[in-house]
Amino acid sequence: MTLPTLPVECLSNVLSFLDDRSLYKCLFVNRYYCTITVPMIWTDPFIRQISASISRSLIKALLACLDEDEISSLIPNFDIEPSLFEYARFIRRINHDCCVEHIKTFSELVSRNDNIDCRVQKLIDAIYHMIIRKSPILQEFEINVTKKGYFDLPKFSINEPGFRNLRSLTVFNLDLIYDDAKHQNTTIFLNMVSTFCEGLVNLELWVKSLNSVLAKQYLDIIKFQPLKRILMYINNSEKIPFNLGLEFRSETLKELILDSIDFQYINLSFISKLECLKLLEFLYCKGFDHLEVSSQKRFHLKEFKLWYCNTGVLMEEIIKYLCGESLLKLTLSNVTPKAAKAVKDFCPNINFLCIRYYSRVYSDLIIPYICELSSLKVLNIGSDFGSGMSSLVRNLGDNLLFVEDLFFDFNVDLESFVYFIDNCRANLKKWIIILDDYSLSKDYLLYISQFQEVHNSLKAFGIKRYEYNWTNEEKEIVDILNIQGVDIVTSDELDFLFY
After folding, report:
1. Rounded to whole angstroms, how far apart are CA atoms 45 and 91?
2. Domain count, the chain
3. In 3D, which of 403, 411, 386, 406 has the Cα closest to residue 497?
4. 137: which of 68, 201, 242, 335 is 20 to 30 A away, CA to CA?
């Protein structure tokens, strides 16, 4: 029986939901399926598990795409078999470290002598030049350094088109290479990116220090490329030689994520110049007492995250300064009552709120402010201690009105859970809890059935636990809940709603 033929776009969309193992099986359905599946499998080939069989198959397929000059440069020459496809044409993403590890594994399989590093570098050079020559769709590149060492990039020519369409660049731990000779070509490549790429929109810098020899390259990329998203992680409290260069991106930058940065050495006034900024995240940062608050400036952020930062008493002022009526999604850790009031007063339109407590200090005063937000539909509340939140649960039971999706990211004791069920007026649609005592699952499910009888609103409920082997009694209650219109799901199926 001949399979019906779907248009390429439709079939590609269907196959995009499959994992690699399932996609691999599609190769053998027929030639039509094969021609559509191969480009999907080869979009990001180097992230696959590194093993003798996978690395051998991957590198041999790439060697089959080399031209005569690239083959002659290899040490030793390999017996190369012709392939059905030019696989390099389909590559969109390269992770340099993963690519090197596959090449090293392959090299150790085919030859075992003392000249392994030289052979690996020759293979890296040949394979990269072939990919750059053949792939017109290469868009994402990650240069990373691991503890296993670093092999330099090849020396690229500015006339090679492969990197011209690069859209995303990630640089990870390059400053850990103390021998400049080991990243000489990488430095040249970074110099090229700032002027040679035609539209780099995403940059991720994971560095120990910006007082490195590559600081100028990073600044030039920020200065000359039309970046829309920047993630910057700096794992060192020191005076930075420049103000991150972000003021150059005032007309393009839409997303900014700053991780582990000490703002005592950086003037945060550059934020006021980012006219197009929609998402701003501060993660594990400190030094906010240097923030210059201007009541005249109005931002138009849609998402803001202040996560495990040492803000002291300034959280309220930061919210007033950066947030406003345009804000839809807000994530805070260790929120204070004053900050909660600032959220209510300055962010009346948020529909998503995530709160995390990393200390045992908690105030019931924050809940009424949160519950007054009529636009709030998704609420995620968590605690690093995982317990001692019964007061919060009861307080939410008394005040919650508008939230539809609720996640208690901490262990909920049965007594406060029952209180919440009995008093909650919100018509919840999706709900996740964490449960340490699995033996009580039946009781929680029974009370969920009681909640549904009253509200008839719940569509999905999840108990986050390590095992999901229901007892016969629990299965009976699950069946009842299904009849009531409630799906009992693993929390992983709902987690995407809450982050």
Report:
1. 7
2. 2
3. 406
4. 68
Rounded to 5°, angle at Cα 387 from 386 and 389: 115
Residue finishing a domain among 41, 56, 71: 41
CB 324 within 8 A of CB 347: yes
Nearest to 195 by CA among 159, 216, 220, 161: 220
Rg for the chain (alpha carbons), in Å? 27
Single-letter amino acid, residue 145: V
pLDDT digits (tens, 9 = 90+) for 310-326: 887 789 989 998 999 99
Residue pointed to by tokens 């397929």? 61
- Which tens digits make up the pLDDT trace of 384-418? 776 678 889 999 999 999 999 999 988 889 999 99
Cβ neighbours, 10 Å, residue 132: 20
Angle between helices 96-110 and 116-134 (to 10 degrees): 130
The reply to whether 327 falls in a domain is no
Joined tokens for residue 490 = 């693993």
For residue 378, the surrounding DSSP H or E stretch is strand 378-383
Residue the block writes with tokens 């017996």: 79
Q: What is the CATH number of the domain that holds 387?
A: 3.40.50
Cα–chain center distance at 205? 14
Place of tokens 């608050």: 293
Whole domain around residue 8: which residue ranges? 1-41
Closest Cα to residue 58, out of 45, 40, 77? Answer: 45
Tokens representing 246?
A: 């972000």
